[in-house]
Amino acid sequence: MNLINYLLVIILPAFYAGEIVTNSQSKSAPMNVNEVPVYKVERLKKKFKLDANWNKAQWKKIEPIHITNYMGKVSAFQPEVQSKMMYNDTHVFVIFQVKDRFVKSVVTKYNGNVSSDSCVEFFFSPDEKFPLKYFNLEVNAGGTPLMFYIEKPMTELKKLTDDELKQIQIAHSMPEKVDPEIVGPVTWTIEYSIPLSLLGKYSNLTYPTKGVNWKANFYKTGSRTSNPNFITWAVVDFPKPNFHLPQFFGTIQFQ
């Protein structure tokens, strides 16, 4: 969900504190609102090519995140959405796989309204001391990104420049533009690497290493497709679809 949609809703001021669970969420069962999920992020041992291949060797042994919790109305067709994450000394790496229908992707301008398309999103707080300050990286099925650093919702927002966004390598399995909408079954994948040096320009970065925790959430949306959906990893306890509520982020633990 991008900042345009976000500005239309009211932010809950209270920070959410719930019970941490260490077991990963099952594929079929949505989480209880009191559960705060934990995802263990493995260190990448060998470099690989970014090619949006979910099944390549480097990802095969990495446990996936299952994104199954709906905000607002549950869509008529429910996509199957998974993500995985790794890191090394210079980058964090994220891959999404979406088994989908009603796929549309028309926004090609950086920092455009990509969440209106079929879109996957990674929101994360890389500063352990300030977990409510976060980045939102949103990438539509065609590989077009939007990214802000948000120090204070609605009032303190820093938009990354096009040149900075180009430092994030993004691979996508779908064409840059998907129009008309693909109504039938299709699986699409987004894979990217985020330079830690880029994050450090905006935040007081807690560099990932064994024992470091970041706060984060993973999302799927498609607000202007014919099958609108707003799906989260960590439960967001709010009556309207709104991903910009960092008090509900889960935890990612670097191994």
Short description:
This protein has 255 residues and is mostly beta strands.
Could you explain how this protein is built, in words?
The chain is mostly beta strands and 255 residues long. The chain is built from four helices and 17 strands. The protein has one domain: Sandwich (Immunoglobulin-like). The protein has helices spanning 3-6, 57-60, 162-165, 196-200; strands at 19-21, 35-43, 65-67, 69-70, 80-87, 91-100, 103-105, 119-125, 134-140, 145-152, 156-159, 169-172, 178-182, 186-195, 213-221, 230-232, 250-254. The radius of gyration is 17 Å and the shape is globular. The relative contact order is 0.26.
User: What is the third-level CATH name, the topology?
Assistant: Immunoglobulin-like
Cα(first) to Cα(last) distance is 29 Å
**Overall mean confidence score, pLDDT:** 89
Encode the helix/strand succession as letters: HEEHEEEEEEEEEHEEEHEEE
The residue ranges in which pLDDT falls below 50 over 5 or more consecutive positions are 3-28
Helix content: under 10%
Class in CATH? Mainly Beta
Task: Give me the CATH architecture, please.
Answer: Sandwich
Number of domains: 1
Percent of residues in beta strands: 35-45%
Radius of gyration: 17 Å
